[in-house]
Amino acid sequence: MKKLFVGSLPSTSTEESIQELFSHYGTVHSIKLVRDLFSGRCKGFGFLEMEGHEARAAIAGLDGKAFEGSFLKVKFEEERSKGHKARRRIN
Q: Which of 3, 28, 68, 76 is most deeply packed, by most CB within 10 A?
């Protein structure tokens, strides 16, 4: 399973519209759009999970494509390191 970052989404985007868009490339296992706390509208990006070969096909087919007036940015989500680097305190 691969996690994808999807950016440059219009604020009107819904999980259903993203599901429909990406389902042409394979099965979408999960979708999480980041929403504004007060308005509930999409903040312009989200994450989804697909199988590896389907995720690669979705990136090839959708990165830079126009969607509802915006040009999508689609790429693999980069792993973030867990924990913080310890800092030494100099007195």
A: 28
